[in-house]
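Recall that a protein's primary structure is simply its ordered list of amino acids. Everything else, from secondary elements to tertiary packing, is in principle encoded there. The following example makes that idea concrete.
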Amino acid sequence: MPTTFAVRIIQVHVARREHSSGVWRFLTLRRSPEETVFPNIWQVVTGSIEDGETPQQTAFRELQEESGLMAESLWVLPFVGNYFDTTRNIMNFVPCFGAIVEENAEVILSHEHSDYAWLTKEELQSRLVIPSHKEACEHFYHSILLPIEQGETPVFVSVLNDATK
């Protein structure tokens, strides 16, 4: 059986900025112990692309489904995660997005997760276990959040929430 290549899953890295300190905090979700894949690990928002959906539509949908949050802005990150699925013989490419949400937005977890935390980048890096989650977080910070912090416009594409595209 030949190896195939697919784009089936997305990642969304979520940040909010504390107005009082200016510090960026990143959302991490703890997978429910009942989940069959990676139970109890801390991760970013992830999800499967549904038929007829674009990766960016999936990013908006999964962000809302898994955390109850709505993005003020969503950015295409200059990074694509990847992993090899040995059971299906598929090389998966994972588009990564960065979302900024309001500082006091309320997180509402789905059944897929049992807990959440807002962490500094350093705390997040020590808690995440999936390498592509760690790497995409760095791209989000350096390519999107740092320019915003410095009063600049990021050069990468921001995405509007338009389900018709």
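The chain has a mean pLDDT of 94. Residues 110 and 137 are 22 Å apart (CA to CA).
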